[in-house]
Write the structure tokens for this entry.
Amino acid sequence: MQRVVRAAAALAFVVAVSVSAYAVTDGSGDPTAVKNDDGKWTDKDGNPTFKVDADGTVDWYTYSGFIRYSSECLRCHGPDGMGSSYAPALRQSMQRLSYAEFYATVAGGKKDVTASQELVMPANGENKNVMCFIDDIYIYLRARADDAVDRGRPQKHAPKPASFTKAEDACMG
Amino acid sequence: MRLASAGFWLAITTTLSSGLLLAPANAQNAGDPLTLQANPANVASPTVSYDNHRYSALDQINAQNVGKLQVAWTFSTGVLRGHEGAPLVIGDVMYVHAPFPNTVYALDLNNDGKILWKYEPTQDPNVIPVMCCDTVNRGVAYADGKIFLHQADTTLVALDAKTGKPVWSVKTGDPGKGETGTSAPMVVGNLVYVGVSGGEFGVRGWLAAYNTSDGKQAWRAYSEGPDTDIIVDPQKTTALGKPVGPNSSLRTWQGDQWKIGGGDTWGWLAYDPKLNLVYYGSGNPSTWNPKQRPGDNKWSMTIWARDAKTGMAKWVYQMTPHDEWDYDGINEMILADITVGGKQVPALVHFDRNGFGYTLNRETGELLVAEKFDPAVNWATKVDMDPKSETYGRPLVVPKYSTDHNGEDVNTQGVCPAALGSKDEQPAAFSPDTNLFYVPTNHVCMDYEPFRVSYTAGQPYVGATLSMYPPPGQTNMGNFIAWDAGTGKIVWSDPEQFSVWSGALATKGGVVFYGTLEGYLKAVDAKTGKELYKFKTPSGIIGNVVTYEHAGKQYVAVLSGVGGWAGIGLAAGLTDPHAGLGAVGGYAALSNYTSLGGTLTVFTLPSQ
């Protein structure tokens, strides 16, 4: 079902905009990587995005995002963005959430407490383990939402860029 | 409401008039847990009895007739989250608890389970995301006309058992720092004991005792810190027969790390009336990154025996020094007098997350047996049992599976068990008829990669990423086993598709009950493990099976309502990162079998 809907959406996109071999779109639009800044890719609108080579090698940030997601987010959202009995499947949420919306929810949290459900996302704005890697987590989940990476640990990844280590040290303190 | 309470009062008076009211009104009065536990018609305590046997002397339902079991009635808790624990039955009233918002119902067993009262506290929903792995609660305790509940927000409340109205309440912790309440309290005499959750938030664990009459704290013993904080006597408190010495905890931490060192206390409590000792386990040290906290990290991962009145520790035993895998030591302590090496011993039997089944002398803390209760366990070759050895009592860790040895940013592969342990909080049962322990187990392995994290109060403090999958070449993620604790051997083992995350019940009828994550209540033969009955309840079972008698008839009850770590880890189905492309998603996904929702299902035999 998911696949059918997605395929239809992709088809609509191709017809309307008539671009791209990568006929996929998510909450931030076309994820195709166009610009590389020392191993960190952005799309045509300047949103962080993933880059997966033909042999399956993922960019460093996608890999780092997997690691950080699995440590900081898995305990509620389940492995690989698949969702759980406790919190929604982010690989689906990311199909409609823009980068700005994702950022705002992670930093500021979210509350949806009704008679039938209690969904509460904590505000992570002060949490270095999340905020220092928020782009990494975004990029990984965007790749999951667009089926660009499979479940589980990416088997091959680009080397860690020097600018990443510098930024990590500065941010983590 | 008033009328209902009156009805309830009448009901309980009728029951108690069968002799219990004649007991003297001192510590052993009619409302004392020990007195109530002696009557198998009741489910008097969250652990059924102080010794944690989870054994019932009722035998109307037995191996011959259990196949005819039928559903007698059901009850929805109105809450969707994971339902752990079990209801209490005191006389003619059943007390049913639920996860956050921690609703408690009193149901009139004389009136088809009519609701006598309902208690629903108002709690700040901000506590929800600081509860690691679902908003579970493992139940309420009863004593002397009061129901004791440790709420998610760490409010310990005493309710009037007749009306559900709070008598007193006290805040035991600070959810702003990640301290939460999930475990069931225990009452001994005039003290009620509670522990705390929050190992994934750097919460320093404690066990606290409060006066049942007014909620005043009697003592609080931390798992880590100075000797006064952890309430030990450096000369008299022993570890493996020797005094622990001064600063036994501080010596094993770098700097102030013990202050955010974990060792939380969210498991089941046990009590030995003869020795007047309370037993429990402390959990994993924080963070999950072992490189960040050098040392043995005492007294995380420890079995504690404390004086019930003063809290003074009599003995301790640390099972997994310097944890590298999240093998929380919180699982229940089962107090049973069994034969070990031809001698009758006052034993404490404990099935740890780390995959070893331990038998100790509960009076002295002497280590008698430590054997793997899942053959898949590989992180340690064995526990050193030689008292003359320098590593006496310690697990002999296999370097290949040591996440500390392999270091930060290295993915240590193929470690069995996974972080959820060979067994988690789901309690085992012991039958004095067969002398066997019935253990619900997980059969899952993992890859584990630790990395550097920083601490912020009230934020997750984890520092490791993991992937889980069944042991190589196998597809079953759980087993329900019978264990001989005297020899440390598996007697029989029933494979289960998913981890068995439900507490077991053993009965005099020769039947053992447990629940499965798909939602089946199962009855098996206590001697052979042969399946005698199963019924699929509305949701996956992570609650504990209990049995009671009402109006001369035996009932079996269980809460279903999938969730907890099991619901999070197994919902989407496990993947094996080493199976190669195409095998991904190869194992059963729990979400294909069951969905959320809390229901109590009560079974009985059809009328003749």
